[in-house]
TrEMBL record:
Cell compartment(s), UniProt: Membrane
Highest taxon of source: Eukaryota
Lineage: Eukaryota, Metazoa, Ecdysozoa, Arthropoda, Crustacea
Pfam families xref list: Ion_trans_2
Mode of membrane association: Multi-pass membrane protein
Record's keyword terms, sorted: Ion channel, Ion transport, Membrane, Transmembrane, Transmembrane helix, Transport
TM regions (residue ranges): 6-25
Cross-referenced Gene3D superfamilies: 1.10.287.70
Gene source species: Hirondellea gigas
Record's protein name: Potassium channel subfamily K member 18-like
Gene Ontology CC terms, in alphabetical order: plasma membrane
Potassium channel domain: residues covered: 96-137
BP-aspect Gene Ontology terms: stabilization of membrane potential
One function term, GO molecular function aspect: outward rectifier potassium channel activity
Length: 137
């Protein structure tokens, strides 16, 4: 008991608690983090804009403007939904995973040191509740 309350013991408990938090948040949030690829949707939008331009050419500016504006608005709505689901602007879905062991460790460390967790935050209700419980304990 004396060793646990020594400086080395407290540091060991702190590191162990952070590692446990890393596994905890990784398990909770891993399934919620969905890589969203927008490359196909972007190509489809470009093709649709090209077809609209080719169809209307320069003879009917009002129809071209209406059709192309509708297509761009549809793409913007899709992008907003993708960003909400976790798209970070990178088309390579394997290049960044915020809930890897390292990401979970960083999140756990910044939460319990009250620094704040920046751009990584849990998306699930369970993850948010466990953040509160984890931080309080």
């Amino acid at each position: 008991i004396a060793f646990i309350f020594s400086n080395v013991g407290v540091c060991g408990l702190f590191v162990g608690y952070t590692i446990m938090g890393s596994f905890l948040f990784q398990a909770i949030e891993k399934d919620a983090w969905k890589h969203v690829s927008v490359e196909w949707e972007r190509n489809r939008t470009v093709d649709n804009l090209w077809n609209i331009t080719h169809y209307y050419n320069n003879l009917d500016f009002v129809s071209w403007n209406h059709s192309s504006s509708a297509e761009v608005k549809r793409y913007q709505r899709y992008m907003i939904k993708s960003i909400v689901r976790g798209y970070a602007g990178n088309d390579d879905p394997d290049s960044y995973d915020p809930w890897s062991f390292e990401g979970g460790f960083l999140y756990s460390l910044t939460v319990i040191t009250t620094i704040g967790y920046g751009h990584i935050s849990p998306r699930t209700v369970n993850g948010k509740v466990m953040t509160i419980v984890y931080t309080i304990f």
